[in-house]
Amino acid sequence: QVQLAESGGGLVQPGGSLSLSCAASGRIFSINAMSWYRQAPGKQRELVAIITSGGSTKYADSVTGRFTISRDNAKNTVYLQMNSLKPEDTAVYYCSANLLLRGSIGYNNYWGQGTQVTVSS
Fold first, then answer.
1. Can you say how many angstroms the Cα of residue 46 is from the centroid of all Cα atoms in its chain?
2. b vs e for 100-116, b when ≥16 Cβ sit within 10 Å of the residue's Cβ?
3. Are 3 and 25 in contact (CB under 8 A)?
4. For residues 120 and 8, what is the distance between their CA atoms, to the nearest angstrom?
5. pLDDT score recorded for residue 115
6. 67 neighbors 80 (Cβ within 8 angstroms)
């Protein structure tokens, strides 16, 4: 009933930039927070950035000042602009949305399939 379509991953050199996007579709009534997580090999999945429906944002300490999360509510889309990328940013990045389906009685979290970001020279 819900799909989160991610795009924008790829290979980039240290110091470079990438932009990720994630569009939610389906029988969606409303969306609360949208967020980006990442998971590197052998490590736990971590929250990178989150944005509320009102536009408030929070970032992991490791990306503050380099990454920017934004959203377009009319398009049910969340973005992650990544600048000054470092090798340690290499991970699979996942989009997540807390949303209410039409006809449902409560909110649930949904996830994208993940997109690979590799930072290497």
1. 11
2. ebeeeeebeebebebbe
3. yes
4. 16
5. 97
6. yes
Predicted confidence pLDDT, tens digits, the chain (121 residues)? 899 999 999 999 999 999 999 999 999 999 999 999 999 999 999 999 999 999 999 999 999 999 999 999 999 999 999 999 999 999 999 999 999 999 999 999 999 999 999 999 9
What is the C-alpha separation between 100 and 68, in angstroms, rounded? 25
Quick check: 97 and 81 in contact, CB under 8 A?
no
Rounded Cα gap, residues 51 and 67, in angstroms? 12
Residue 24 CA to residue 3 CA, distance in Å, equals 6
Closest CA to 66 of 12, 111, 112: 12
Residue labelled with tokens 């990442």: 38
Q: Which residue has the tokens 């889309």?
A: 77
